[in-house]
Write a structure and sequence with these properties.
Number of helices: 17
Helix content: 40-55%
Strand order of the largest sheet: 3-2-1-4-5-6
Number of strands: 14
Strand content: 5-15%
Structural class: alpha/beta
Largest sheet: 6 strands, parallel
Distance between the termini: 53 Å
Shape: globular
Length: 434
């Protein structure tokens, strides 16, 4: 089948490369000329494990191509996916759909023959209906259907998530569109992947509901962690104890500095605004948003307390800047609140991240010193703070780190070390909920 992917960002590039690996003919279209030129040279603009091999393997095989010419890319396509950004709209918290609607107009002008237009971007309920209205207005004679097919990709594991998903959700209003989507995802039949067909509005809401539920689990265990610190309980044992209950499940029950990333912050906020708009407020999710925002700032106080009540004039080594490991994505990362918060209290920051430092330089204060590794970051520091649980930080040579430090203080916001082990090495050790 011929597939066009509007948007060569994270979702569009991963999805396009995976569809090409399934054997479909895929063209990724983006208005960013520099990005398309880089992709045509074999350069990958984002960090995602295995993506460079997947993209270039299919590019060399002739199944995957890149262009800025939407007319060329969309003409003759069986399915055109809209995979553009839907950032939080400034001022009111709603999702900004301007890129989605602009893509719909462009597709309408360029499509030839029967085309299924698929919203892959995370969009509020009713967006596919509006896309259909736009396309019908621009091309009254157009032969097309509009479907919703939300993505459920985890950064750092996106390729495996696409090829071995828990489920594929498709919202469609006619059998013709459903048949095209069945053919597109036929390679997953061998894995017996559930293909869930719903109407479009249900499909759109499934994506928001899933992300809001996971964000709620994270926020719940973070508040339990606070209670554990006050009562002398251990949040990791609490997580295991409740996670072994099949009704609850063990995933997303790891206490930490709060969720971040490209999805949870904007999607929870967008769901809150949509619910308010329809007169059905979701108070649980409203609270989740509020608590998570406060939690990141609370981590600043946690670090200061561990440093004796003040960081003024002190050097803090920060390990991990991205919102999670195995990505260079800095969007809404806890570090974006924690690091400036420490600087505002007078701290000097020496930082390291395996993939995120290039992006961090655009988002964090210029005063930060970026280092070659964790031990370099620790040179002369009064404390080390682990914000992101990269594998490179999971087995640190603690005596070597202690030797580099001015004071042996380790603040582990991801609970990746055993307290007794760190204490034996002569550290003052602070973690979350233990």
């Amino acid at each position: 089948m011929k597939v066009a992917m509007i948007g060569a960002g994270y979702v569009g590039l991963v999805s396009g490369a995976c569809f090409a690996d399934f054997g479909h003919q895929v063209v990724c279209i983006d208005t960013n000329t520099a990005k398309i030129e880089a992709l045509n040279r074999g350069e990958i603009p984002i960090y995602e494990p295995g993506l460079d091999v997947l993209v270039n393997g299919n590019r060399f095989a002739g199944r995957l191509s890149f262009t800025t010419d939407i007319a060329e890319g969309v003409a003759g396509a069986d399915a055109v996916f809209i995979a553009v950004g839907t950032p939080t709209r400034r001022g009111d918290g709603h999702a900004d759909l301007s890129y989605v609607y602009a893509a719909a107009e462009d597709i309408a002008r360029a499509m030839t023959g029967y085309t299924v237009i698929v919203t892959k971007s995370t969009v509020p309920v009713g967006t596919a209906d509006e896309v259909e209205r736009i396309v019908r207005r621009v091309r009254p004679d157009g032969d097309f259907s509009v479907a919703s097919n939300p993505e459920f990709l985890r950064e750092g594991a996106a390729i495996d998530d696409f090829k071995r998903p828990d489920r594929v959700v498709v919202g469609a209003e006619d059998e013709r569109a459903r048949e095209v989507m069945r053919k597109l995802y036929r390679p997953l039949y061998l894995n017996e992947t559930p293909l869930l067909f719903t109407n479009r509005r249900t499909s759109e809401l499934i994506k928001y509901a899933a992300n809001a539920f996971l964000a709620t689990k994270i926020t719940f265990i973070n508040e339990i962690a606070d209670l554990c610190e006050k009562t002398g309980a251990n949040v990791q044992d609490v997580s295991r104890g409740i996670g072994l209950d099949g009704r609850i499940g063990k995933k997303f029950l790891h206490a930490g500095p709060g969720y971040g990333g490209s999805c949870f912050p904007k999607d929870t906020l967008a769901l809150v605004r949509t619910a308010q708009q329809f007169g059905a407020p979701i108070h649980i999710v409203e609270t989740v948003v509020e608590v998570n925002t406060k939690r990141k700032l609370k981590m600043v106080d946690k670090v200061i307390e561990a440093c004796g009540g003040s960081v003024d004039g002190k050097t803090i080594a920060v390990l991990g800047l991205t919102f999670k490991p195995e990505t260079d994505d800095m969007r809404d990362a806890p570090s974006l609140d924690i690091v400036p918060g420490l600087i505002a209290r007078g701290a000097r920051i020496r930082a390291h991240d395996p993939q995120g430092m290039k992006e961090a330089k655009h988002l964090l204060p210029e005063s930060i010193t970026y280092c070659d590794g964790p031990y370099d970051a620790g040179k002369g520091a009064d404390a080390v703070v682990i914000i992101t649980e990269w594998n490179a930080y999971r087995a640190l040579d603690l005596p070597r780190l202690k030797q580099a430090l001015k004071a042996p203080v380790l603040i582990d916001l991801r609970n990746i070390y055993e307290p007794a082990e760190v204490a034996r090495q002569g550290f003052t050790y602070v973690s979350v909920g233990r």
